Amino acid sequence: MSATKASRIGEEIWKTRIDKVNAELVTLTYGTIVAQLCQDYDSNYQDVNKQLDKMGYNIGMRLIEDFLAKSGVGRCANFRETADMIAKVGFKIFLNVAPTVTNWSSDNNQFSLIFDENPLADFVELPDDGRAQDELWFSNILCGVLRGSLEMVQMQIEAHFVSDVLRGDDTTEMRVSLVRYIEDEMPPEEE
Amino acid sequence: MSYYFTILSPTDTPIFNIAFGTSKSGGDGIARFRFPDTAQYMNQFIIHSSLDIVEETQWTNGGMYLKHIDTYPPAAAYISAFLTPSGARFLLLHQPPQLPASNSSSLGASSLLGASGSTTRASSSSIAANPTSPQTEEAVRQFMNEIYESYVKTAMSPFYKQGMEIRSPVFRTKVTAAGKKWL
After folding, report:
1. How many CB atoms lie within 10 A of CB A46?
2. pLDDT tens track for A13-56
3. What is the mean pLDDT of residues B65-77?
4. Which fold has domain B2-98+124-182?
5. How far apart are CA B162 and CA B166, in angstroms?
6. Which residues belong to the signal peptide in this entry (chain A) (predicted)?
7. In chain A, positions 117-156, which contact chain B (CB-CB < 8 Å)?
8. Cys-Cys crosslink for B31: which of B19, B92, B96, B145, Cβ 3.0 to 4.6 Å?
């Protein structure tokens, strides 16, 4: 399935089947969660990143079901197709953004998502304690969502942000790499 | 014209300060107050002393922009105020430039302060020279509204807490830009 077709599907579902909510509600709720985590972890941003990723993982594991039900798409033929599906359908229907898929590695197992806009990060300015700018990945929950949802469809991936406009970078970029396809395994024999 | 702009939290804590000069009619945007550099705190004194009047006026006036509400003649300083619904006060002190003293150059600095009160009301309608003209009121209103917009965005940041000092460089840039644009 081509990227343009995926865009069309995403657009169509977004228009017809998605309940919309106020953007500020999402932004402020997510912002509050992150700010609260920073406070709870005494500004240990590594831990905050980890916690956000974990929350995202739990969301992703359930969200994939919703995604498949709403989109009705079938199995992707390869990882490139998966990438387009994530960017043009997944992000489109849940966040109404369509990040650009780019920077493929030569073995087709790694790609980058470039976010032109990020509804989670509107209004946000990172704390100016001299560390948040270097340590906190504000939207890290998205990495967890991808990890969780792909795991449920037999793909073990690793996702992390490599740049973020909130930190003063030019772009917001997430790097996604396929670790392996999870084969069906027989449960360990019980004796 | 030189400006000193302050945002006060609802509990009268200053949360943002900036001094800048006019960029209109050839101004270079640098503040030149009449106080010596060692007495810049005078700006804060004058601004804060106008708070009583702000509080008197705020319930009699339906609008958020209170226009020019106070003057401090010894320094020829004029104060304009803008209130946000949540109780933050935006106060702008403007001080017209010292006019080139053609007749009083020999009288020394003290007379300049006295003379300026009358000269600033002189005919010119340019924003820089006449702090009480309708044009100035309008320019200040535009300025305040623009700042209000940026202030709301800054206050929406999840890491900003009500009443905290605004340290955001983005906000400072926006205020400077608004000053350049309108004043």
Report:
1. 11
2. 999 989 999 999 999 999 999 999 999 999 999 999 999 999 99
3. 83
4. Beta-Lactamase (3.30.450)
5. 10
6. none
7. 122-128
8. B19
